[in-house]
Amino acid sequence: MSYFAKVRFVDPNFVFDIQTTSCKYKRFTRYFWCFGPLQKTYKLLRPVVVIGKTFLKGRYRGTLLTTIVIDPSNYIFPLVFLITDSKTTGSWRYFLEMFGYNFHGYDTRFVVISDKNPGIINVVPKVFPFAIHTFCAFYISNNIKLPSKARGSHLGWQQRPLPALILINT
After folding, report:
1. What are the sequence ranges of the domains in the chain?
2. What is the 3-state secondary structure (H, E, C) of the chain?
3. Could you confirm whether domain 3-136 is CATH 3.30.450?
4. What's the pLDDT tens digit per position in 20-43?
């Protein structure tokens, strides 16, 4: 019995989808999963969704895409996950479509917070036309470089993070 079959045996609402290449060796391309109960869980959470990514390093490389929300007790609640071999627009579309299909309809009003990734910017309005898409200022501040006079050179640059989390509407 595979790992996924064992998890589904314990949690019948467990959702997963594995996609591979069609070649002889069945190379992994992406894997989506989320734990249930899906529709009932999402109704209890705040309508603010944070979408992020991180790179997987080590023996198995790729990108982990996640969707996180805040529960009524102000705790972080991870909803869905996708491991993919690339972070293309197609991967973002697949990830957000699977999220929308498993948690709420496409007509539900909610807020999406993300970084300024072009893939996310292009896909969110197409997949969730009723969503409000904002950017996290922490991500933006990490991409802003200001001149540093402390180093004694006008050519030196340093990062200056913003002191508080600010949301910027698109």
Report:
1. 3-136
2. CCHHHHHHHHCCCCEEEEEECCCCCCCEEEEEEECCCHHHHHHHCCCEEEEEEEEECCCCCEEEEEEEEECCCCCEEEEEEEEECCCCHHHHHHHHHHHHHHHCCCCCCCEEEECCCHHHHHHHHHHCCCCEEEEEHHHHHHCCEEECCCCCCCCCEEECCCCCCCEEEC
3. no
4. 777 777 777 888 888 776 666 667
